[in-house]
Write a structure and sequence with these properties.
Length: 82
Amino acid sequence: MTRRSLFVYASMPDVFVQHLALSAMGRYNFDDHSYFTWLDARYHWPRTDVAVQWQSNHGSARSVYGAQAQSEIVQAIATCFF
């Protein structure tokens, strides 16, 4: 746990074309100077969402975000609604 950190979240629906949403999130730890960033691009259909997500962790091996098992993660997700 940290005592001082900064959190930022931004979301933009219908950014370049209709039904495409972009989201970004970041957190910075002032105590150990580690941080993570997360980006999400998501296209919405009436019953399905398709997303590409990227997360990146930075910091020394003993920091909150630098101690994560993976420093970068990229994933594609499809969600169907019934």
